[in-house]
Amino acid sequence: MGEKLTAVTMKTLANKLGVSVTTVSNAYSKPDRLSSELRDQILATAKDLGYCGPSAAGRALRSGKTDVCGFLFRGGISSAFSDPYSIMLLAGLSEAVEVYGASVLLLRAPAADEEDNQVVRRAAIDALVVGPTYGQESEIEALRQRGVRIVRTEPSPEDDWVTINDAKAGRLVGKHLAQLGHHRIAVIAPADTDEDVDVFDYSPDRLDSRITPQPWETERVRGLWEKLPGAHLQVALARDCTRQAGREAAAAVLDVQDRPTAIVALSDVLALGVWDAASERGLTPGRDISIVGFDDIPDAAFLGMTSVHQPITDKGRLIGRLAMDPDYPQRQITLPVELIVRSSTGPAPKN
Amino acid sequence: MGEKLTAVTMKTLANKLGVSVTTVSNAYSKPDRLSSELRDQILATAKDLGYCGPSAAGRALRSGKTDVCGFLFRGGISSAFSDPYSIMLLAGLSEAVEVYGASVLLLRAPAADEEDNQVVRRAAIDALVVGPTYGQESEIEALRQRGVRIVRTEPSPEDDWVTINDAKAGRLVGKHLAQLGHHRIAVIAPADTDEDVDVFDYSPDRLDSRITPQPWETERVRGLWEKLPGAHLQVALARDCTRQAGREAAAAVLDVQDRPTAIVALSDVLALGVWDAASERGLTPGRDISIVGFDDIPDAAFLGMTSVHQPITDKGRLIGRLAMDPDYPQRQITLPVELIVRSSTGPAPKN
DNA sequence: TTGTAAGCGTTATCAG
DNA sequence: CTGATAACGCTTACAA
């Protein structure tokens, strides 16, 4: 008994050394404001007493800085981890954020029907990275009012963003397929719905009426359509953005009389599923059927997938810089895209 | 001018409503301590004034709780994101942690030569998840002293952990290969070094002398060895735990006179690289050469990889529970492993 | 059911 | 170069 279990704080150090708390604080955050001998002495006693640096909470409360960058996931976190795109983005983001001595906090966006999500609102963060817009923006608004810097992956008037030109990406694919003589084309789009695979002839309105497409989806299809005048463009909705869903959606357009000669998946993960479906039917990609994806993820590149490359990791890095550095000059950035032609596309088979 | 830009706090609300700060606080954290009318009124004015809930910093400072679970990455964050194992673990972890209203903070473990990493020490977290032990444990020690709960993926006397029996996993593979009549076997192990691929005959000491293997590596090889008495066991070191590194390491053991009839990669990512290397040489896995991996990740399963399954996502979930719930009864858990035989293994070719 | 007062650990400000 | 003092926004005893 009589055992004193007080936490070691700056005060403890200050008392022990006969200096003020301010000086101890300065030893950590403002090294140039005290003699280096005193600083060394303070750091040494800190190690002695088992003091492990300024507490994040105290620091955050007083200075408002947390050195944490939030990353908001749409829907379940698991979905984000099953998508190489998110993961590569996250990798780049973490890398950049690290340079500023900060870390990344994973935040799950509340579902549209959730009242108000305390988890996101309460987050102690300096900046928040937001992916494709999701229904409920109120949490983001709340954070913005608290002074949290918002960085997006899609254009937004009031926030910073790093994006690509999705319409152009679509056009690159459209042009490529037109040159190869494709006329019957199917688009596989993620629907984020629980319903069965749905197939319909494309028109902008009809797409909007079936799902609430995210801007990048709308834009990609629009660009594609623009370069394929007169083509027969179908859309098949995939349950979600996974390989398996892509496979199922592809099955729906492949198992019919006049199957398309080319399938465009709105992301490479889906395209991999398309590849699976084609292979299972004895179709060789690039010869019997052309397959195109977007994003150019390694797994797809490895197989020889023709895809629209975007610098995902660089995008993440840039987002990280914008998030952590308020003085970074360019705050709304469009990154280049490029069509990488590989073996999965070829001339439309004549039959 | 004269514009007052004060942050909206509980005090603002309290003044506006003529109640005390305590009551406002209770409206958020202890709803049963005030009448529901008053609570509703408070929440309404909060929305009015644009108050977005208790600030994490204040809360953390006063109560000590942050509702954040740290996840410590070995080496660069990028490496963790390139490994499906880490990603699946993280997915399970996030899922569980979310249930407790908490989020996950990604922390990069400092390199062995870094003095003291403020980023990890300062982290405002309730619990820390630590993967395979890395050299410098002092950061972890510091956090433990601050009352941060430590959960590991490998057995540790003083902390909580969730692990698998790696030796048993190795034995399952050894037994399987023995039954198939394999005698010349190569093991691909990740070395985390920049040196060239190194190949040597296995013995426990020799492995330790070449690299500093992590416990799970040592155990897996030991188990394997145990069930393969008299076999010729080689070890090839891969640069890191990536598909490409696995491919390079496999090349080194395949391009020789008496190549092994079976290759055991210590993780499925490496095994995929082995598969690549074999295919490039016209060898069909399961017929011309047997390939076995560990972890049973989807990409490998898809190809037909024989692998030791471990419930990675469940492991993550369990770790999350241990991290967030101090009262969870079982605190040191070993999860089952199971050999899944697929097409990548077959009888040793006689030649 | 509500209020009062103290203090969590830090940093900003200003004075020596 | 160093120090005293006052917040930062919240929760927690305890008191009413």
Cα shape of chain A: elongated
Strand content of chain A: 15-25%
Please give the oligomerization state of what you see: homodimer
CATH class descriptor of the largest domain in chain A: Alpha Beta
Percent range for helical residues of chain A?
40-55%
Number of helices of chain A: 15
Structural class of chain A: alpha/beta
Low-pLDDT windows of residues of chain A: none
In round numbers, the mean pLDDT of chain A is 90
Query: Largest interface here, residues on each chain?
Result: A-B, 48 and 48 residues
Rg of chain A (C-alpha, Å): 26 Å
Based on the coordinates given, report the CATH architecture of the largest domain in chain A: 3-Layer(aba) Sandwich
* Domains of chain A, number: 3
Number of strands of chain A: 13
CATH superfamily of the largest domain in chain A: Response regulator
CATH fold label of the largest domain in chain A = Rossmann fold
Order of helices and strands of chain A: HHHHEHHEHEHEEHEEHHEHEHEHEHEE
Strand order of the largest sheet of chain A: 7-8-6-9-10-11-13
How many angstroms does the end-to-end distance of chain A come to?
A: 91 Å
Characterize the biggest β-sheet of chain A: 7 strands, mixed
Please provide a written account of the structure:
The structure is a homodimer of 351-residue chains. With 351 residues, the first copy, chain A, is α/β, with parallel strands linked by helices. Chain A folds into three domains: 10-54, lambda repressor-like DNA-binding domains (434 Repressor (Amino-terminal Domain)), CATH 1.10.260.40; 68-164, Response regulator (Rossmann fold); 166-310 and 335-340, Response regulator (Rossmann fold), CATH 3.40.50. In chain A, 43% of the residues lie in helices and 18% in strands. Chain A is built from 15 helices and 13 strands. Chain A has helices at 10-17, 21-29, 36-49, 56-63, 77-81, 84-99, 118-122, 138-145, 166-179, 204-210, 215-226, 243-254, 268-280, 298-303, 312-324, and strands at residues 68-73, 103-108, 127-130, 149-152, 160-164, 184-190, 198-201, 232-238, 262-265, 290-295, 306-309, 332-335, 338-340. In chain A, helix 14 links the parallel strand 10 and strand 11. The longest helix of chain A is centred in the N-terminal third of the chain and has 16 residues, at 84-99. The radius of gyration of chain A is 26 Å and the shape is elongated. The N and C termini of chain A lie far apart (91 Å). The interface between A and B is large, with 48 and 48 residues. Chain A binds a DNA duplex (16 and 16 nucleotides) through helix 2 and helix 4.
